[in-house]
Amino acid sequence: MKYRTLFLGVALGVTLLSSFLLAGCQEESSSADKLKIAVSIVPLKEFTQQIAGDKAEVVLMVPPGAEPHTYQPLPSQMVDISQSDMYVKLGSDFGFEQNWLSKILSLNNSMLVVDSSVNITLERSSEDGGADPHIWLSPRNAIQMVKNITLGLMSLDPENQSYYAANRDAYLAKLGQLDNEITLALSHLYNRTFLVFHPAWVYFARDYNLKELSIEIEGKEPTPQQMIEIIDLAIQNNISIVFASPQFSSRSAEAIAAEIDGRVVMIDPLAEDYITNMEFIYKQMQEVMS
To answer: Does residue 201 have a pLDDT over 90?
Structure first.
């Protein structure tokens, strides 16, 4: 009886081990079947994942909360890049890509590189005179970026073109609705000027007929004289809200807000859930600029 019990225990253990190994192999096989796509920032990850669905694993290079102009990728991220099938670049003089794209490509010169900025009219940056990199912060640009990413996926994986097209169309409908909401909400504002610390909103301002005033000048904190000029402009434009971003110090924004009897409102250009974030941002602007 003892031998029979021992035999049954061993048999059960072998069965469980076999099941575990089989499940592991199936999981590894399923993972291996997926494309691996690397992107630079959170909004690009969302755009790509919305289109790719369950056909791809999307690897993020600049994590939430990091400052993308100065972020240095971890060794594990560089390993991910070396194994990726496609890289979606912002393509608009983006600081992270200026610093790292050549190194990224040297690790994996066989991966497809998709430029998300194709067919987007770039604006001049107030920081360095190049192209302003913040193209994703206009839903109209986001629509074109999604189209560009879709073309890349279709080129990489032609067998699933109809799948990517269906996902693209569903997401574009949501972005189109967002654009319509913002257009309607901001079209009748009397005061069309807003004040920000970091000048990230040039495309948003362009597409919705607004004017962005920036505290940060050419990537630097303002001098005392520049602070005085900004305060005067804010008073002239009846501005009582200073928009700041969590990636940057809010010290200057708080100082100016105190001088104009206003307050600082945080808006995140790199937040997750693009549509919900843009809805929050335009509603904040609508409230303070009406």
So the answer is: yes
- CA-based torsion, 223, 226, 232, 236: positive or negative: negative
Helix %, strand %, coil % of the chain (to 5): 55, 15, 30
> Which among 254, 235, 233, 232 has a CA at the least distance from the CA of 243?
254
Q: Which residues contact 62 (CB under 8 A, 6 or more apart)?
A: 40, 41, 42, 68, 71, 96, 270
HEC string for 123-173: CECCCCCCECCCHHHCHHHHHHHHHHHHHHHHHHCHHHHHHHHHHHHHHHH
Report which of residues 74 and 252 the model is more confident about: 74
Q: What is the pTM of this model?
A: 0.85
* More confidently predicted of 143 and 236: 143
Q: Who contacts 105 (Cβ-Cβ below 8 Å, separation ≥6)?
A: 87, 113
